[in-house]
Write a structure and sequence with these properties.
Blueprint: H1 2-16, H2 19-30, H3 34-51, H4 54-71, H5 76-92, H6 112-116
Helix pairs in contact: 1-4, 2-4, 3-4, 3-5, 4-5
Length: 117
């Protein structure tokens, strides 16, 4: 919950500082085609999803990328599927080898039956 709250605060600060407008100007300068925008979003989400959980990544990037997707006339359902798929793939590519939301396996405890026999 703390991570989600902090991500919400960061998203609010990014909106207040007009980061989305600056990002839109940069993306339009880099490429005018929708596929270039989708390629940049794919790379950004894969890199971001490797280091943070998918839900905070969505909360952080949705206010930035959704208006840009609408400017490039990309269907919102298609864009949401792309975001979800990228974050799921990035979650599986974590450098420490542990997928998202899996319980740790190292603190195993012996059962009472195995101790008494």
């Amino acid at each position: 919950m703390l991570v989600i709250g902090a991500t919400g605060c960061l998203a609010w600060m990014m909106t207040a500082e007009q980061v989305a407008v600056q990002l839109a100007e940069w993306v339009k300068g880099v490429g005018h085609q929708p596929w270039v925008f989708l390629l940049l979003v794919n790379i950004a989400l894969l890199l971001l999803g490797i280091f943070i959980e998918p839900l905070p990544a969505m909360l952080l990037t949705a206010p930035l990328f959704m208006p840009l997707a609408q400017v490039f006339k990309i269907d919102t359902i298609h864009f949401r599927v792309v975001v979800t798929a990228n974050l799921a793939i990035a979650c599986a590519l974590r450098p420490w080898g542990e997928p998202c939301s899996s319980p740790p396996t190292w603190p195993r405890r012996e059962s009472a039956r195995s101790l008494t026999t």
